[in-house]
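Open question from group meeting: does this chain pack into something compact, or does most of it stay loose? Before anyone orders reagents, we agreed to write out a predicted structure and look at it together. Recording both the input and the output here so the notebook holds the full record.
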Amino acid sequence: MADYREAPLATRPKTLDPNEYFNLSPDQRRAEEDRAALRANLKRQYQTQLNNPLRKELIEDPALTRWVYARANPYLYFKPSYKTSLLGAMFGVVPLFVLYYVFKTDRNRKEEQIKAGTLARKFSLSS
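Structure tokens returned:
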């Protein structure tokens, strides 16, 4: 853990923070053990339902149901943040300005060549 450097935009993981990992009070350790026991119990119940050979009905997973509902209704659960605003600008606004710049500079270059008489036109109608 001595050579771990923190990333500038990310927090240190709990497993690598010595204050959170080594200096836990007995109450915090007991609470973590209780949560782990609860997760293990739920996992065991789900596995017994899943591997039941006499099962006829579907297994309802509430976490999966919530996830599917959130995916079906994205605008109800969208939270604007710095990252989403930056992504929206990068993929929504910046391409418009880039295309405008490309078309405008190409058009201006062709107009200058036409005025100077150096543009080699492929299809000339007057000759």
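Observations to bring back to the group:
The chain is about 60% helix and 0% strand.
The mean pLDDT is 87.
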